[in-house]
Amino acid sequence: MAAIVEIENLRKVYDGGFEALKGVTLSIEEGEILALLGPNGAGKTTLISTICGITNPGSGAVRVAGHDVVADYRQARRMIGLVPQEINLEPFTKVIDTVRFSRGLFGKPRNDAFLKDLLTRLSLWDKKDSRTRELSGGMKRRVLIAKALAHEPRVLFLDEPTAGVDVELRKDMWDIVADLKAQGVTIILTTHYIEEAEAIADRVGVISKGELLLIEEKASLMQRFGQKHLQIDLQEPVSDIPETLASYGLILQEGGASVQYSYDTRGERTGITALLNDIAAAGLVLKDIKTEESSLEEIFVSLVSEGAA
């Protein structure tokens, strides 16, 4: 699939010498959902702002659908919708007028049928005549998405779109993103909520201190870096792990009622069969066994820690 956003050796240094982006290179495919993860100050918002033309790059190049964001700014910007992190809406303007105005800013002809469909999909049509100051925080975020989509962009940037909203609304937002993807919209998402990336992203990028540490398909990332954990519940609690089991690196849990064994998913052998045999030989009686995989959050923390080292 062709890349719709191309970033080559992008650097940005602010006044005072702070280097926010350090040679970021990235291609984003048309129709994919890319989640950018990183701690505060990692460079996520600077990267988005540069692509969207809000911040000028120090050096390097950015193209959106083949249009350079500096040399061909107007054409590049028409391709982009941006949902900012901060809610900043004119409080006394009606929802429909706010969205209609955003469409007009990009030179698009009036299309009430399209806007009705857009607001309906975002559960905003019954609020179209409400002033934005009358809306809840969650509804205001929906208005921001409607504004960003009003001119029919091919690329949508969501900068912390669910920050501060409740869990139910967050899941609604995930459904909205999935619907947009089905329509062919490319979505770049920055988030602090690791489960958000785990739920909806096709690929995950990890950025820290202005550097892109990794960009990879989510499933491949979790398989490559993930570990599986085997939790073994015991019939009778133990105070210590027998010395004959020391080589397995078992962790005693829950007051001695269970032990945890971790193994690499990439290994040819898990060692589980030998472990279970040795547990029986040590006189321990099993009650239950269950496995779980590393979460994306654990992988993210590990990558950022390595990048900081």
From TrEMBL:
ABC transporter domain residues: 5-234
Gene3D superfamilies, sorted: P-loop containing nucleotide triphosphate hydrolases
InterPro entries per UniProt: AAA+_ATPase (IPR003593), ABC_transporter-like_ATP-bd (IPR003439), ABC_transporter-like_CS (IPR017871), ABC_transporter_ATP-binding (IPR050763), P-loop_NTPase (IPR027417)
GO MF terms held by the record: ATP binding; ATP hydrolysis activity
Source superkingdom: Bacteria
Alphabetized SMART domains for the sequence: AAA (SM00382)
UniProtKB keywords: ATP-binding, Hydrolase, Nucleotide-binding, Transport
EC assignment: 3.6.3.-
UniProt keyword Nucleotide-binding, yes or no: yes
PANTHER family linked: ABC TRANSPORTER ATP-BINDING PROTEIN
Name of the featured protein: Daunorubicin/doxorubicin resistance ATP-binding protein DrrA
Origin species: Shimia thalassica
